[in-house]
Specification:
By secondary structure, the chain is of the alpha/beta class. It is built from ten helices and 13 strands.
Length: about 325
Amino acid sequence: MQLNLSLQQLRYVIEVVECGSINAASQNLYVSQPTLSAAIKEVEKDLGIELFNRTNRGITLTNDGIEFVGYARQVLEQMDLLETRYSGTQRNAPGKLTLSAQHYAFGVAAFVEFVEDFDGDEYDFSFRETRTNEIIEDVKTYRSELGIIYVCNFNEKVITKTLSDASLEFCPLFDALPHVFVGPHHPLAQKEVVYPKDLEDYPRYSFEQGVNNSFFFSEEPLSNLPHKKNITISDRGTLTNLLTNHTGYTISTGVLSNEMSGGIVAIPLRVDEKMTVGYIKHKNRELSDLAQRYLNTLKEHIKLNTTVSLSQAL
């Protein structure tokens, strides 16, 4: 069966679903109710299924309708991405750059400096600190030009496979030994080095990863270490407050930790593991001048830190 559905028809269906009634949807779409009803029936006829259960109390999706709407949303999202990527307005827009990253203070610090140094009259910049899987999806779908993540011995195979399936490549920036982050009054704060067994009685803080809540997508290395207490958060501000006021810990690179607020202490964790932090981008696609300028600023921040081993790319 060959379908003859238009994007407008898909948008009609989605609007009806979101409004919960054809009457409300017709008002939002500025079309008459009979016209919208006829368009929905035409879609159902073309598909050979019923999308909605129609009762005196309103309309609800059928099981077939639920499945169809899932596909329709994907089609419209991809079309929106195409329009954003290739429309003349976006293609010629001055100073446009979108970046995605795991929750790293040095990534934000470099972005702030990048913005301060930009001297264009117009710009549209975006920096998304978000989940690992969303970073990969952002770059895959061209929502972001590059994304900042890390790999280690534990997650490297899974991350590499995920990136390869998405036609993305990982470009290393630096290697770092895992550090434990604690508040200045934490019982471990005065130690020169920490062992995993030292952490067993303290809460571990980690960034939530949504439906992709896998050890392999965790932002914190050694996520597979057993820990009896866990607190999940979604932003660095909450993490800073917890570290400053509570007796928990998190594990990260230690890069520029002396610039974090509240006097947070970074202590080397004695484990046979290292983190390689880098950026991901589309294979065979050159970065824009703006993306390269951000990377240059980021690399300068990294060079200021003596606790990491710089990649040959720097």
